[in-house]
Amino acid sequence: MNPHGFPSRMTVGKLMELLAGKAGLLDGQFHYGTAFGGDKVEDMCQDLIRHGYNYLGKDFFTSGITG
């Protein structure tokens, strides 16, 4: 994502959709991740905490090739 696009509403919706997708994957159910209704961001963040992930959805990845 282009960092210059973060002030727009579409980019905020994209971040919410990414969070909803990750929380839904862990819960095994669908989450409605748009800015206009559905699941609250706080509820999705609590789902991440319940499964041992960071509250904000930030993860660190390690390369299998370079370590």
UniProtKB/TrEMBL annotation:
Top-level lineage group: Eukaryota
Record-level GO BP terms: DNA-templated transcription
Keyword check for Transferase: yes
Enzyme class: transferase
Listed InterPro entries: DNA-dir_RNA_pol_su2, DNA-dir_RNAP_su2_dom, DNA-dir_RNAP_su2_hyb_sf
Residue ranges of domain DNA-directed RNA polymerase subunit 2 hybrid-binding in the record: 1-67
Keyword terms of this UniProt record: DNA-directed RNA polymerase, Nucleotidyltransferase, Transcription, Transferase
EC number(s) on file: 2.7.7.6
A Pfam family: RNA_pol_Rpb2_6
Family membership: Belongs to the RNA polymerase beta chain family.
Protein name: DNA-directed RNA polymerase
